[in-house]
What we know:
six-stranded parallel β-sheet; 23 helices; single chain; alpha/beta
Amino acid sequence: MNAAERFVACLEAEGVTHIFGVPGEENITLLDAISESDITFVTTRHETNAAFMAAMFGRLSGRAGVCLSTLGPGATNMMTGIASATMDHSPVVAITGQGATWRQHKASHQMFDLVEMYRPITKSSTSVVSGEVIPEIVRQAFAQSCCDKPGATHISFPEDIAKADVDAKTPLLRDSEPDTLHPTSVKDSAVLKQIEQAERPVVIAGFGINRSEATAVFRTFVEKLGAPVVETMMGKGVISSQHALAAHTIGLPNTDYNQRILDQSDLIIAIGYDITELPPSKWNPDRTPVIHIDTNRHEIDQYYPVVANLVGPLSDSLRLLAEAIPTRAWEGWQADRDKLRQEIQATYSMALPLHPQSIVRALETATGEDGMLFSDVGAHKVWLGRHFQTTRPNQLFISNGFSSMGYGLSSAIAAKLLHPERRVLCASGDGAFLMNGQDLETAVRLKLPITVVIWRDGTYGLIEWKQQQAYGRAPFTEFDNPDLVELATAFGALGLRVGEHGSLSNCLEQAQNSDGPVLIDCPVDYRENLKLSERLRTYGG
């Protein structure tokens, strides 16, 4: 067999079922080998989207997603999605074709050192130097992508090595459980002592809780502690929005009502939190002492003054702590939470263009308990993070690590492939959608019944929001849109426009009954952005 066939055999040994990518001249030998395997290759329309799809596939399945590009511009296109996977801690193995080894020492067509280019944005980056080492390289890439905090790894595969003969008897390496650090005792730990001494602890819930599937034991822990819980945008769902201890989501451009709860705290317990989700300077300006509980040690940051660490599997750590901590509660924080909750649960006008709050409410109803909503990046992400009420993990997906536009549609496609039984929706701004919406064709080709709701206002809304606050004007943020309904039709999808084809709720109902992709053009009134900023400024004095 050739090295490409050996490579594919290793992928199958890792349990790979799907690869997302774009074909290119330098990966045709590998593509041919994939075509003879049981692996499904999903041809995408852009390499960035292929990486986004692989990242969501990895996040939802718990196994590394796989994406493939050719060399040169294909490989550089894919880097945005790979950087996003690393910062969002989604396990991905990125494979790039590369020119033959005999031309790598000199200037050559489309040639850059991809191993070095990918190194800063991945957990590991390497090249296949001979067919005999392929089992080691593949096993290492998959192991590193999933261990500790997951992320992306990269393999460069030169075209001449892919064609070379290899010994078919070279053994495949199988998966094995990684070593983990188990906390042996917490009774005499600094963590327990800090919690016992604190009078007003607050818990920050990060994405690591969802990733570690530690939601149940987390809820047991906070109920025993009796402390308010604020979630990062990526941590939404670890506690129900209706729970008595829920203090909702942090991460607004402005200081929100629940920031006062953090300001009153004398100890912040960060669980499964990564500073890429939201910089500590945003929520801890007074440098309140922090307890860090996670699978990895904390990053060094002056606004993240860690006084005690508990590092190990989150379920084990939280279970041991829940057994040891005293039952207690502190009062007085609920008023600020209730002010925020009042806004979240309020009813807003349904006149066009729609208020962001009204769109969130309609999407919340359409998503329900079992659906999944994927938010792209923009002003709509802020409104969804703040107002969308969750009851469990994996209802609302927000990328708040790398936060790249284009995340939403690609992630929704991957999720629907993995969970065809669940309703899948995507919320995107018109700015984000037109960056890589060409993969709507991929959804049509795969006959995936997903719903894409475009919040249309003709601006880069989040940047406009920040410009208006800083300078009172917003230059260079406006643009024109094509007819989004006709664009959807041209792709072979169903296009609906709110108002012309009924209310947003009616359009969402029509979409649910469709057997293919549906794009909904929904005009939004982002004057609410500055109104919210003014309310928060007035409340904060």
